[in-house]
Every structure is written in structure tokens, then in C-alpha cells.
């Protein structure tokens, strides 16, 4: 499943081929074992070189693992927040062509970001929601085009940019409105942390 991803295949073509060949060899051995499930026969009396065959499979898988580890590191270098999740989680994200596959991992990647607001057949992210069900729309919707680390970087930038704009408006209206009305946000809905920030600034 790992090397079935188009992105991984394109980035690690040799390793993908190597893994596919190793997988075939391993399945062949398992088929032979199924026909005669006797440990002594399978390990000693069966085809000569079984031990070497298993050692070769292990060696090839180790090489694939090292290449895969380097590949994951390159993804994390491109989008450092991927350091917050495990290799297994990252592979699950990279191995899927569905942008929504990022959703179960958002709380690990971003503080209190529970979900992203997908629109237009999941090709655009229009905003985000917190664990307290507070939400806001991005100033500029972000497209889910290119590699996942590329569009997640754009989402990260847009989150900061939009929160900056919201905070700026909150501070501006604080001096012009009644404090209670400002918190309720009749003109501009206030997020909890933005309300606290605006109060601290003033």
C-alpha cells in the first residue's frame, strides 16, 4: 500500500520496483509453506537456499525502509509541521489522493484546529474550525493543488494571514463600540482568543 501511491512511486521509482519484486518473492514462499505447513520441512528439507532467500528479502526491505525514511524527511523539511505526526500517519496522508485524509491529523498539526472547510469537490479550502466549533473563513481560499506539503504550506500561511486581519479589525472596533456589543460581534464576529487579544491590547 505504501508504494502504491503515485507520488511515492514517482519519487522512489527504483524502491517501488524493488518492493514489488520482494513482495512477489515473499508471497511465493508463503504459498509453498501453505502447501506443506511443516516447520522442519519448510526451513530445512525444502528448496535449498531458503535461508539466503529470506535474508535477501530482509536486506531488500531494509534498503526500501531507508529510502522511505529519507523520503519522509524531505516531506517534513518542506512542511515542518509534519514532524508533529508519526511516520505511519504521514504515510497515510501521502498515500492518499483525497485531500480530506489530512483531517484526522489536524489537531496534531495545528493547535486546536479540528477541521478544514472544503468546497468545490474538495479542491478548495475556504476556512477552518476549532474544537469549540468556532470558525472563520480565509481571506483568500486555498487550493489543494500539487503535493500535500505544498498546499498545506499555503493553508498554514493563509491561517496566519486571516487571523492577522481579524485581530486588526477587532482592535479597531474595540474603541468604537460598547465592550459587550464588541464581544458579541454584531459587526464582526469575535473569536474567543481574538476577543481576549483585543482586550489585552487595549
From TrEMBL:
<keyword id="KW-0966">Cell projection</keyword>
<keyword id="KW-0493">Microtubule</keyword>
<dbReference type="GO" id="GO:0045505">
    <property type="term" value="F:dynein intermediate chain binding"/>
</dbReference>
<keyword id="KW-0505">Motor protein</keyword>
<keyword id="KW-0547">Nucleotide-binding</keyword>
<dbReference type="InterPro" id="IPR026983">
    <property type="entry name" value="DHC"/>
</dbReference>
<protein>
    <recommendedName>
        <fullName>Dynein heavy chain linker domain-containing protein</fullName>
    </recommendedName>
</protein>
<dbReference type="InterPro" id="IPR013602">
    <property type="entry name" value="Dynein_heavy_linker"/>
</dbReference>
<keyword id="KW-0206">Cytoskeleton</keyword>
<dbReference type="GO" id="GO:0030286">
    <property type="term" value="C:dynein complex"/>
</dbReference>
<dbReference type="GO" id="GO:0007018">
    <property type="term" value="P:microtubule-based movement"/>
</dbReference>
<keyword id="KW-0243">Dynein</keyword>
<dbReference type="GO" id="GO:0051959">
    <property type="term" value="F:dynein light intermediate chain binding"/>
</dbReference>
<dbReference type="GO" id="GO:0005524">
    <property type="term" value="F:ATP binding"/>
</dbReference>
<keyword id="KW-0969">Cilium</keyword>
<keyword id="KW-0963">Cytoplasm</keyword>
<keyword id="KW-0175">Coiled coil</keyword>
<dbReference type="GO" id="GO:0005930">
    <property type="term" value="C:axoneme"/>
</dbReference>
<dbReference type="Pfam" id="PF08393">
    <property type="entry name" value="DHC_N2"/>
</dbReference>
<keyword id="KW-0067">ATP-binding</keyword>
<keyword id="KW-0677">Repeat</keyword>
<dbReference type="GO" id="GO:0005874">
    <property type="term" value="C:microtubule"/>
</dbReference>
<feature type="domain" description="Dynein heavy chain linker">
    <location>
        <begin position="2"/>
        <end position="170"/>
    </location>
</feature>
<dbReference type="InterPro" id="IPR042228">
    <property type="entry name" value="Dynein_linker_3"/>
</dbReference>
<dbReference type="InterPro" id="IPR042222">
    <property type="entry name" value="Dynein_2_N"/>
</dbReference>
Amino acid at each position: 500500500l505504501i508504494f502504491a501511491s503515485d507520488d511515492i512511486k514517482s519519487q522512489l521509482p527504483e524502491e517501488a520496483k524493488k518492493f514489488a519484486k520482494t513482495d512477489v518473492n515473499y508471497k511465493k514462499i508463503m504459498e509453498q509453506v501453505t502447501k506443506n505447513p511443516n516447520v522442519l520441512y519448510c526451513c530445512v528439507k525444502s528448496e535449498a537456499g531458503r535461508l539466503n532467500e529470506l535474508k535477501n528479502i530482509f536486506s531488500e526491505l531494509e534498503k526500501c525502509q531507508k529510502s522511505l525514511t529519507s523520503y519522509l524527511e524531505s516531506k517534513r523539511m518542506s512542511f515542518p509541521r509534519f514532524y508533529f505526526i508519526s511516520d505511519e500517519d504521514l504515510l497515510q496522508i501521502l498515500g492518499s489522493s483525497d485531500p480530506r485524509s489530512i483531517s484526522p491529523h489536524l489537531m496534531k498539526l495545528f493547535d486546536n484546529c479540528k477541521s478544514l472547510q472544503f468546497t468545490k469537490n474538495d479542491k478548495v479550502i475556504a476556512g477552518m474550525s476549532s474544537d469549540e466549533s468556532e470558525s472563520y473563513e480565509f481571506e483568500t481560499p486555498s487550493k489543494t493543488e500539487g503535493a500535500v506539503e505544498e498546499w498545506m504550506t499555503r493553508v498554514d500561511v493563509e491561517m496566519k494571514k486571516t487571523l492577522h486581519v481579524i485581530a486588526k479589525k477587532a482592535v479597531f472596533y474595540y474603541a468604537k463600540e460598547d465592550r459587550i456589543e464588541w464581544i458579541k460581534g454584531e459587526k464582526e464576529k469575535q473569536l474567543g482568543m481574538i476577543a481576549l487579544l483585543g482586550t489585552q491590547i487595549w
